Amino acid sequence: MELGEIEKAADCPHNHLKVVEIVGYRAHTSGVEHVMHLIKNVLALEKIVIDPVRTWQYPHGVDRPDTDLDKEVKARDHAKQYLEAKMPSTVEFVCL
């Protein structure tokens, strides 16, 4: 496999995975593909939570720079407009 190639994920129904939370989401192609893969392959999925805040980068009480805040707003808007529209009716979509 060459750098940049995407390897096909193994087919696995993940029968016990009911809730997925994606923290630090950005509207990058890889993130969107990951969410789409989960929607299609996690048969027991009941809820998906998208959180664009990257809390691990800034300890409690440390202000995030405006550039990060802008990225979070864009990621949140993208998730609400694009990903929410792709959710099956059986999956609850939450965007923080």
Structural commentary:
The chain is built from two helices and three strands, in the order βαβαβ. The protein has helices at 29-41, 66-86, and strands spanning 19-23, 47-51, 92-95. The chain has one domain (19-95). The protein is 35% helix and 15% strand. By secondary structure, the chain is of the alpha/beta class. The termini are far apart. Helix 1 (29-41) links the parallel strand 1 and strand 2. Strands 1-2-3 form a three-stranded parallel sheet, covered by helices on one side. The radius of gyration is 15 Å and the shape is elongated.
List keywords for this structure.
Putative FBD domain-containing protein; elongated; 2 helices; 96 residues; alpha/beta; three-stranded parallel beta sheet; single chain; LRR_At1g61320_AtMIF1
Mean pLDDT across every amino acid position: 84
DSSP helix fraction? 25-40%
If helices are DSSP runs of H or I spanning 4 or more residues, what is the number of helices?
2
Give helix and strand order, one letter per element, not per position: EHEHE
Q: Unreliable runs, pLDDT <50, ≥5 residues?
A: none
**Strand-residue proportion:** 5-15%
Whole-number count of domains: 1
Global morphology: elongated
Strand order of the largest sheet: 1-2-3
Give the C-alpha Rg: 15 Å
- Secondary-structure-based class equals alpha/beta
| Cα-to-Cα separation, first versus last residue | 36 Å
